[in-house]
TrEMBL record:
This is Uncharacterized protein. It comes from Cloacibacterium rupense. The lineage of its organism: Bacteria, Pseudomonadati, Bacteroidota, Flavobacteriia, Flavobacteriales.
Length: 403
């Protein structure tokens, strides 16, 4: 009709933020990207005088988690509304190599999300790289630290196919097949990074029910992963698999005043989710090693104000290394080891923050304490003796300006 605007065939929106983090730590910790992301405090390491070499503080000022993204949509495809998303930050993909000069890839642009979504009335299909399905975007800790609850909440992105089916207005089911990419299972010594995933012809399979209304989000899910750590063992062709299962659940309640979130997960070989865990190899009479996952259990709770200007929040999380189901391992490939005899038994964290918000600017001071229990392992990778409790106090101020 004359004078009436035609609907836009294409719509493109840019978004992102500049962020500055000021970080102070009381103890040396396992970390990612120059202490931007702290995992757990390191085990006691005594020198010739009996002094703990890891009982030393550190600090850093960083802006590498600043982010850029674009969302776009165009004409319908196969009678479905279609949209896409590209997003990255400057966190990089590799660490500083202490044995060589340079800073790895920190400060360089890295891919976070690259998705295509086709959306029908009751069914949607997402293709590309996005969050691991165990990471729930609506239910993750609201901490200021960039770790977003890492060690207690899954984290990372994976190439995937995700089919979502609406069962009712409030209930949906997701079926996902994915492959690890940036965050992966540990590789056997002498093999390529991410070799267990590459070698496997079967993607990880995931199913998840979610209930959602105006105030509540709740879900239950499970997944099965079958990896192939090596293609040869002791010079012999190997078809040995590393099989593991994971179950998890979550809950969120939000009203005008408060937001409460809870999450729990238990499973084998959770290394790829940036959590405790991994697997062990076992020698067999046929000369070909077999593999079993270590089990990890973790949970967290986050309670925060939902006010628009000043919003305090509290976080608490706990993760437990439950070891292997079989004793007599040959070698371990897991996060949280100190040499071949000591490992982390558990990690816990509490933190308190206050968000000060004005338009698109947010300033957040946060105090955080992370404790870990280290000790000597038995033949099933469980910590049983010579335990040491260590802790790291982190003070953080984060400033973010979004667009």
């Amino acid at each position: 009709m004359y004078g009436q605007e035609k609907p836009k065939e294409w719509d493109i929106n840019f978004y992102g933020y500049a962020r500055a983090d000021y970080i102070f730590d009381s103890r040396k910790s396992a970390y990612v990207r120059e202490y931007q992301l702290n995992l757990y405090p390191l085990d006691v390491a005594k020198d010739a005088n009996g002094e703990d070499k890891n009982a030393t503080g550190s600090s850093n000022f960083l802006s590498v988690v600043s982010r850029l993204g674009v969302k776009f949509k165009g004409p319908d495809v196969f009678k479905a509304k279609i949209s896409g998303n590209l997003e990255g930050d400057f966190f990089g993909n590799t660490e500083v190599n202490a044995a060589a000069s340079g800073t790895g890839s920190i400060g360089l642009f890295r891919l976070r999300h690259a998705t295509i979504k086709l959306d029908w009335a009751k069914t949607s299909l997402t293709l590309g790289q996005t969050w691991y399905p165990t990471f729930v975007p609506e239910v993750f800790p609201g901490v200021a630290n960039f770790n977003t609850g890492i060690m207690f909440n899954p984290f990372g992105w994976a190439g995937q196919i995700r089919l979502r089916q609406k069962i009712s207005e409030q209930l949906s089911f997701d079926l996902v097949a994915y492959k690890d990419r940036e965050f992966t299972a540990s590789s056997v010594s002498g093999t390529a990074p991410n070799a267990p995933t590459f070698n496997s012809s079967v993607p990880t399979l995931h199913g998840q029910f979610q209930f959602k209304n105006k105030k509540i989000i709740a879900g239950l899910g499970a997944e099965y992963q079958s990896l192939k750590p090596v293609i040869e063992s002791g010079g012999l062709a190997s078809d040995e698999k590393l099989n593991s299962t994971t179950v998890f659940g979550y809950f969120k309640y939000a009203n005008e005043a408060i937001v409460t979130k809870l999450y729990g997960i238990s499973g084998g070989n959770l290394t790829h989710l940036v959590m405790l865990g991994g697997y062990g190899s076992y020698a067999n009479s046929n000369g070909i090693d077999s593999y079993k996952p270590t089990k990890t259990t973790a949970f967290w709770v986050d309670i925060a104000s939902n006010k628009s200007k000043i919003a305090p929040g509290l976080f608490a999380g706990y993760s437990k290394n439950n070891g292997l189901s079989n004793s007599g391992y040959k070698a371990l490939y897991m996060r949280g080891l100190n040499g071949t005899t000591r490992a982390i038994d558990n990690v816990w964290r509490v933190s308190a923050r206050v968000d000060f918000k004005e338009n698109k600017f947010k300033l957040t001071p946060e105090l955080e304490y992370t404790g870990a229990t280290w000790g000597a392992m038995d033949s099933s990778a469980k910590v049983v003796s010579a335990k040491e409790n260590v802790g790291n106090f982190r003070a953080l101020v984060s400033a973010t300006y979004s667009f």
